[in-house]
Amino acid sequence: MEKLHAKKCRRVVLVPFPLQGHLNPMLDLANILHSRGFSITIVHTKFNFPNPADHPDFQYVPISDGISNWDISASNLVRLASTINTNCKDSFRKCLTQMMQQQQEEKQNDQVACIIYDFLMHFAETVANQMSLPSIIQRTSNAAALLAFCKLPRLRAEGYDCLQDSTSDELVPGLHPLRFKDLPTASMGSLDNFLQLIAVVCNTRTSSAIIWNTTDCLEHSSLTQLQEHYNVPFFTLGPMHKMALAKSSNLVIKDDNNCIEWLEKQAPHSVIYVSLGSIATLDQKELTEMAWGLANSDQPFLWVIRPGLGSGSEAHLPEAFQELTGDRGCIVKWAPQKDVLAHPAVGGFLSHCGWNSTLESISEGVPMICKPYFVDQKMNARYLSHEWGIGIELDEVMQRTDIAKAIRRILVEEEGSRMRQKVIALKEQIKHCIKEGGSSYNSLNKLVQFISSL
Ligand code: UDP
């Protein structure tokens, strides 16, 4: 199938959720649609907003969110989503009304075709519906996670009281291979509030399609089950960072590119890359265990210690750590993660298993050590270790001996080579998905046709 472009110049309005892991796939989608002839407007909160200079071709429109400062943590995420949905609705309506008036007055060609919103920004659907504009949901996490979320209310109604048991190894009925301890219910604050949010995000309401940052080759079974449940077309465009021609945008910290120079000096597959994403935190004991785990592994490491990863503004590493590890280690505040994972020196990724990090690692054929925390991360870790066989799961309690051992298993031992072979096979399948004729490529063509027909 040839590459399809928008029939006439149409505008799509994108509404991202203001966290790095949500913004990245939304900006990737913006880049993808822009390359297919659509004009792009990003409507964003004033809190945690992307840098317009990173994408000068896009129009950026801020909306009021009533948030001056927010301590981002797992227990706070449900409240953040609810606050934004309450506070942004009126401002979004005003902004859209203005855009439409301007369109009419100036007889612009690129009329708004639809609103595409992150699944957590559901106020956008309400407003779009009121203004008779079509809306499409973007799912920034994976299909298996949505499947699990949709089952949670029913499990609760059926009396499963191990829903909040973070130690239960019992398999969740109908959600193979997940165990109760993989579900996010123990880490998200009040279960009632979490289930309320889930009820909203599992409902497509009047939205006319769902765009996924996943691929058929990774999630065929979950996607098929969900498609039976949802009566709207699915467009699976993942991994979107591979489909997009341009880079996304950092929210807070700049990439430290010095680590690429350091990687240049390392042997192939010799380095463990360590990053826990943009939200997860470590207490002082965990930070110390991680530091000693890296030191005792005797392997080169690249460690992202972003401001706020440890308790306090600066992370306190053990005194002898620097002396002991010397040039064997490179520590940065923020890494150009996709470039790091694509570097031949990187042999493993010790990760919190956020969905973006998971996709980015698989796309580059890098096996993982999984230290998940909240939302979908434990489910992703279970898929990585149990379903795809490309990850080693660490215990809930972080211990230096386990960390050092897992690093050596991935980088030095036969087990790591086997995992690398498996993840490279998945990387090849992903390459097929995104190239001409592949499932993600075809899905994008169908999405372009779909939006052009709205
Ligand atoms: N990221 C990055 N540099 C870093 C750490 C993270 O560029 O040093 C990016 C990473 O590539 C990914 C995103 O931040 O695209 C994190 O998203 P993810 O879903 O993995 O985790 P979250 O931050 O949402 O927990």
Automatic annotation (TrEMBL):
Transmembrane spans: none
GO molecular function, one term: quercetin 7-O-glucosyltransferase activity
UniProt keyword Glycosyltransferase, yes or no: yes
Keyword Glycosyltransferase: yes
PANTHER family: GLUCOSYL/GLUCURONOSYL TRANSFERASES (PTHR11926), HEXOSYLTRANSFERASE-RELATED (PTHR11926:SF1489)
Name of this protein: Glycosyltransferase
Family assignment from sequence similarity: Belongs to the UDP-glycosyltransferase family.
Top-level lineage group: Eukaryota
Organism placement in taxonomy: Eukaryota, Viridiplantae, Streptophyta, Embryophyta, Tracheophyta
GO biological process: (-)-secologanin biosynthetic process
EC nos: 2.4.1.-
Sorted UniProt keywords: Glycosyltransferase, Transferase
Pfam families (UniProt xref): UDPGT
Gene that specifies this protein: LOC113735601
Matching SUPFAM superfamilies: UDP-Glycosyltransferase/glycogen phosphorylase
Gene source species: Coffea arabica
Cited InterPro entries: UDP_glucos_trans, UDP_glycos_trans_CS
